[in-house]
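Lab manual, section 2.4: Encoding a predicted structure.

Procedure: take the sequence of the chain (321 residues), apply the prediction step described in section 2.3, and record the output as structure tokens. A sample record is shown.
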Amino acid sequence: MTDIFGFHTTADEVLANIDLRSKRVLVTGVSSGLGVETARSLAAHGAHVVGAARNLEKARNATAVIQSEAAKVGGTFDLVELDLADLSSVKTCASELLSGGQSFDLVIANAGVMATPFGHTVDGFETQFGTNFIGHFVFINRIVSLIPTGGRVVMLSSAAHGIADVDLNDPNFEHTKYDPWVAYGRSKTADILFAVEFDRRHRANGVRATAVHPGGIKTGLQRHYSEEEERKLVESINKGNAAIGLPPFEYKTIPEGAATTVWAGVVAKADDVGGHYCQDCHVAEVSEGQNIRDGVRAYAVDPDHARALWKKAEEMIGEQF
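Recorded output:
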């Protein structure tokens, strides 16, 4: 049945005829774009969704439609405050959820930043690595006791992981010239490696993790670079596509972009997606080609590399899980 899903499939099409009224889901980054659509599609099929956002006022405005859609089918939607660039906020949010004691069948690490100017999080980590990876690393590990047997974690990664592997010797660009796309690629590789190691650690307890590439989508993520920079990026991708016989780059709509996330979190078999990287509602194959859209790089799913990153992250935050 899942073979019918592909590039243009939407989240609602993935979830067609699926009743999620018994499920609780946590989605980070529900202030705009993919986070809102992911939360909406799940709540519209009956799930009890908790959305996490840094700016609650912005999130309330962006998610107003979710409340009405959820009410029609018995779903619910609530908001919690979470700033992934500030570990004190991460720990506070996690503690409040733990105090509430309600479980989450699915945790979706959707929030993130892309191609930002050089900077640091509150705790001194390079902005993209610290927000996209470290913040989620701490948050998910702190609430893992709330994920029951049969639960899943979905990490949003990107085909941009093909730009760069993580640098365990210089994660904060202290000795390396900063490049916003290299930094983004590193953070998205880290998200995949987190899923690989988290899955290894928790699969015996029936909790699985996977990473997904939602596709190229125009959302608020593009705010840190100009239209000219975007045009040049697409031209570069198309040049690589043409060289290996692939069609030109094509943007997905936001509903299409949310499809692989809900597919991997709800529809796909856990053993099929656990510890893997998915795109277009399928598990991607390892690829070392020149095109960054094509498959997953071997370094991003290497189990030894994943364990090394986990250890490095624990050293960076001074906490072990």
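Check your result against the sample. The two ends are 38 Å apart (CA to CA).
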